[in-house]
């Protein structure tokens, strides 16, 4: 259970960090995300994929993000979070939880707009 809470906490904080980053460089980004097709694990339907023609990789390149910075901002998972043995603790896949966190944040923002 401790691993589950720590891994979820890290993912939640990374999504918050990513949203703050996008707020600074691309105000209103959240209103351009289509939650009907949103999928963090799909290069053209994730946050950066929907904001940049050319998908996730183009978004990372345009923003000048390193892989570590992309992980820290919740745009991708770190290799550790992908480690299969995390599932031994009853957690859902990291991508599932990352997707859920982004969806929740974007939905809340879109409802407030």
Q: Give me the Rg, rounded.
A: 14 Å
Question: What is the percentage of strand-forming residues?
Answer: under 5%
Judged by helices, strands and strand pairing, the structural class is: mainly alpha
Tally of individual domains = 1
Residue-averaged pLDDT, rounded? 87
Outline: globular
Low-confidence stretches: 85-90
Helix % is: 55-70%
Key descriptive features of the protein:
mainly alpha, 5 helices, about 110 residues
Description:
This protein has 113 residues and is an all-alpha fold. The protein has one domain. Helix content is 56%, strand content 0%. The protein contains 5 helices and no strands. Helix 1 packs across helix 5. About 5% of the residues have low confidence.
Break the fold down into its secondary structure elements and pairings.
Layout: H1 2-25, H2 47-51, H3 55-63, H4 67-72, H5 94-112
Helix pairs in contact: 1-5
In short:
With 113 residues, this protein is mostly helical.
């Amino acid at each position: 259970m401790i691993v589950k809470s720590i891994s979820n906490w890290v993912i939640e904080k990374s999504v918050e960090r990513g949203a703050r980053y996008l707020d600074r460089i691309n105000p209103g980004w959240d209103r351009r995300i289509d939650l009907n097709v949103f999928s963090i694990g799909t290069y053209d339907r994730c946050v950066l994929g929907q904001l940049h023609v050319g998908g996730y990789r183009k978004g990372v390149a345009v923003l000048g993000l390193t892989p570590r910075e992309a992980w820290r901002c919740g745009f991708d998972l770190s290799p550790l979070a992908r480690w299969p043995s995390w599932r031994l603790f009853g957690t859902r896949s990291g991508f599932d939880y990352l997707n859920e966190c982004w969806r929740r944040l974007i939905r809340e923002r879109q409802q407030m707009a």
